[in-house]
C-alpha cells in the first residue's frame, strides 16, 4: 500500500483493464447519522462479473444497492460521492431513478416472483414499459437466457409461486433481463438455494456475462472464486468508534485469493478457507 493510501486507510484504486460501465466513487454513505460506508472506489467492468465479499455489515449490499439507486427507497439513506454510468452521474438531480433501474436491474436474495403466472411475471416489466413488440417472443427469449425455458414452456400459465426455489430465482432473473438491462446487480442470489440450484444459477451467471455486466454480492468465498472475474473485498473499520464499511482492496479474483496485497484480506480469506 502506498503511503497516502495507508495514511488515509483507503484502498489503492483498482485499474481495470477493460471498459468501465459503472464507476462508483463512494465518499460517504449514511443511514441517518450512521456512517455505513466510506472512501470506496469500485469500478464495474463491462461484461465481467464483479464480486463483493467481506464480513457481515461491511456494506456490500449498501454499495451494490447504491449502483441503481435502490436505497433511495429508504428515507434515512444519504449518498455522498458519484456513480457514473456510461459517464452520467445517476445521482444527478435531473436523473429519474426509475429509468436508472430500467438499465441497471436487480435480483434479490430471496426469490420473489409475483403472485401471477410464469408468463406474466416475465412480461411484467415489458408491460410496465409499454413494450410494443412481440411479447411472447421476448418472454421466451428471457426464459431461455435464464435457462428455465425447457422446464416451464408447457406451463406458462401456472403460477410463478408453484416453481421450486431454484426455478423461482431463475424466473426472477428472467424477469430482470426481459427488459434487456445493461447491468444486473445480484444480492446474494443463491443464499436461499440448495447446492444443485446454486450451481445452476452460477452457470447461468457465467452465461449471462456474455450479454450483461454483473455485480454480485456473495457470502460464499468459493462462489466468488468460481464466478467472479474481479473481486472487491470490504471490511469494517472500528478504529473511529463506529462500524464503518470500506473497500480494503480490489483486483482480479485470482490475485485477491492467491496473492492478496493487504494483511486484512489475507486473514479474511485464510480464515474463511482454512
Ligand atoms: N435500512 C437501513 N437502516 C439503517 N442501517 C442500515 C440499513 N441497511 C443497512 N444498514 C447498516 O449498514 C451497515 C452495512 O449494511 P449492509 O447490509 O450493506 O452490509 P453487508 O456487508 O451487506 O452485510 P451482510 O453480509 O450481513 O448482508 C450495517 O451496519 C447495517 O446495519
TrEMBL record:
Q: By what name is this protein known? A: Phosphate ABC transporter ATP-binding protein
Give all residue intervals belonging to the ABC transporter domain.
Answer: 21-269
- Gene Ontology molecular function: ATP binding; ATP hydrolysis activity; phosphate transmembrane transporter activity
Organism, scientific name: Thiorhodococcus mannitoliphagus
Q: Which GO terms describe its biological process?
A: phosphate ion transmembrane transport
Keyword Membrane in annotation? no
- Quote the InterPro entries the UniProt record gives: AAA+_ATPase, ABC_transporter-like_ATP-bd, ABC_transporter-like_CS, P-loop_NTPase, PstB-like
> What residue ranges are annotated as transmembrane?
none
Looking up Gene3D superfamilies in the UniProt record yields: P-loop containing nucleotide triphosphate hydrolases
Taken from the UniProt entry, a GO cellular component term is:
membrane
The UniProt keywords, alphabetically, are: ATP-binding, Nucleotide-binding, Phosphate transport, Transport
Amino acid at each position: 500500500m502506498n503511503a497516502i493510501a495507508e495514511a488515509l486507510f483507503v484502498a489503492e484504486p483498482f485499474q481495470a483493464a477493460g471498459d468501465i460501465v459503472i464507476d462508483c466513487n463512494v465518499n460517504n454513505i449514511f443511514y441517518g447519522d450512521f456512517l455505513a460506508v466510506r472512501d470506496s472506489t469500485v469500478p464495474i467492468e463491462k461484461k465481467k462479473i464483479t464480486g463483493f465479499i467481506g464480513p457481515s455489515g461491511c456494506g456490500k449490499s449498501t454499495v451494490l444497492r447504491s449502483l441503481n439507486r435502490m436505497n433511495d427507497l429508504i428515507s434515512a439513506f444519504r449518498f455522498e460521492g458519484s456513480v457514473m454510468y456510461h459517464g452520467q452521474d445517476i445521482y444527478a438531480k435531473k436523473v429519474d431513478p426509475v429509468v436508472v433501474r430500467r438499465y441497471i436491474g436487480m435480483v434479490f436474495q430471496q426469490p420473489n416472483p409475483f403472485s401471477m403466472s410464469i408468463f406474466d411475471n416475465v412480461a411484467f416489466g415489458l408491460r410496465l414499459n409499454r413494450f410494443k413488440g412481440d411479447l411472447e417472443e421476448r418472454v421466451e427469449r428471457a426464459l431461455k437466457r435464464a435457462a428455465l425455458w425447457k422446464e416451464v414452456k408447457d406451463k406458462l400459465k401456472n403460477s410463478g409461486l408453484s416453481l421450486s426455489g431454484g426455478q423461482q430465482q431463475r424466473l426472477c432473473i428472467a424477469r430482470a433481463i426481459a427488459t434487456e438491462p445493461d447491468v444486473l446487480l445480484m444480492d446474494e442470489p443463491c443464499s436461499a438455494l440448495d447446492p444443485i440450484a446454486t450451481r445452476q444459477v452460477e452457470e447461468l451467471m457465467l452465461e449471462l456475462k456474455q450479454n450483461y455486466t454483473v455485480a454480485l454480492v456473495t457470502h460464499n468465498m468459493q462462489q466468488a472464486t468460481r464466478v467472479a472475474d474481479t473481486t472487491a473485498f470490504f471490511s469494517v473499520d472500528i478504529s473511529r468508534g463506529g462500524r464503518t464499511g470500506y473497500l480494503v482492496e480490489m483486483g482480479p479474483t485470482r490475485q485477491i485469493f492467491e496473492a492478496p496485497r493487504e494483511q486484512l484480506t489475507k486473514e479474511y480469506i485464510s480464515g474463511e478457507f482454512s
